[in-house]
């Protein structure tokens, strides 16, 4: 007997995540996560042991949970469903029930981590009862947010509006109960009011096109996230011109229009006009900077920079595999060695600029240990050389 539709869709999604998960959570990343989590927890406990009760800790805890209690609903619908499933709409309650349960567990990781951090912050100045009520309220808000975001897809209310309202309600609800546990009733009333308002806004029949497009957008975002660690063949590459980067794309001199140098310019052009890659790297740098400034701990800063360069090198290596086999070699066929050497020169320059920027930030944060910053450009160079060779090795194995 054929498996129910929801079961096969969930199993397929789990297979995709398991396949890419082995590349994301490899031994290097797990070692980094273990060390970073240990250093972070040790630093946080050290800071909290010296702090007095203050409303600022409540604000931070509530803000963390407000942002993390926003589960995304995965309908697992596909493009062809727009044609075949509308006649069975009334019989699909079970399907959407199981995809809701799947979405609940799929998004639970970050809220749990955030709740642990929030409870550690609240351990300064709050009783066990207050912390327990805070945790229960967080669970309720998480469940309600999932239903609200799911129902909002089939309504004229935009997801940005829903997210904004949820963040505000989460923050107000959690802050109120931290002042007095009996104020939790007000938070429940707010989230219930938003739930009923979204329900009233829902269309009578399912908007299948919107549901399918929303699922496709979420899947695309997942692939973009995975592309930070490994190549993703399902992701659709897009390019855009950013005029503020034009100054970095000066036309090469006549003597540089040859097989030994032109591909370096083409890699540079592709990098600057890639729709995602420059912005992903900038966001990563921003995240690493905020983490270093906030924690301001020597060993954690070193680990963050080393891991950051590792992630960025993985991003850069995809530029070669994405472009070296497409249109360029067909228009201008040259020996593969020229393309490889051009990519190495280009990627070394980018990694040197990034590693020097992170080294400068490290020196600003930890002036007495300025000499440690020397390892960052060297680490970036070694990583880039290693991953470039691994890409070329795969290329040789597949080219016979």
From TrEMBL:
It comes from the Bacteria. One of its GO terms (cellular component) is membrane. The keyword tRNA-binding does not apply. Keywords: Membrane, Transmembrane, Transmembrane helix. InterPro entries: EcsB_ABC. The chain crosses the membrane at residues 23-48, 54-70, 102-122, 128-148, 160-176, 182-198, 277-296, 302-322, 343-363, 369-387. This is ABC-2 type transport system permease protein. It comes from Lacicoccus qingdaonensis. The lineage of its organism: Bacteria, Bacillati, Bacillota, Bacilli, Bacillales.
